[in-house]
């Protein structure tokens, strides 16, 4: 009896440029080198943006740095609820991703991981700030977060 194929979230795979997703012999996607659909140099022959992950990473850094500088000068008003955070996310990533500021479907059937270093806390004058670990919440923990009557997720 052969093992049943592993499941994966097609909704999550759809965030990536199809030609950058690799598939193993069992039909399971490998997104370790995949590139997310983006708005960088979109054209008729490149409808999902650029496919070079290193170029996209540099562009994302420069674009979000510029947008973060705008927010420092003129913060997005709000109550730090979900609606407000979505507006901030849109402002930061509007030049990079078509879903900036939208709620996305996270994978249900495998862990969502963040590539790269953990978030860092910067203070003026500190050259190498300590890294602050982060974690992702399960979807059921996030549902309703920041809405009236649900002040937030309790820390473990």
| Residue share in helix | 25-40%
- How many alpha or pi helices? 4
**Rg result:** 18 Å
What's the average pLDDT? 78
Structural class label: mainly alpha
Structure description:
The chain has helices at residues 10-13, 53-73, 82-93, 139-142, and strands at residues 22-23, 29-30. It is built from 4 helices and 2 strands; from the N terminus they run αββααα. The chain has a two-stranded antiparallel ribbon. A hairpin with a 5-residue loop joins strand 1 (22-23) and strand 2 (29-30). The longest helix has 21 residues, at 53-73. The protein has 156 residues and is mostly helical. 26% of the residues lie in helices and 3% in strands. The model is unreliable at 150-156 (pLDDT under 50). The termini are far apart.
Task: Set down the secondary structure blueprint.
Layout: H1 10-13, E1 22-23, E2 29-30, H2 53-73, H3 82-93, H4 139-142
Antiparallel strand pairs: 1-2
Helix pairs in contact: 2-3
Keywords:
156 residues; disordered C terminus; mainly alpha; globular; 2 strands; two-stranded antiparallel ribbon; single chain
Can I get a quick summary?
This protein is mainly alpha-helical.
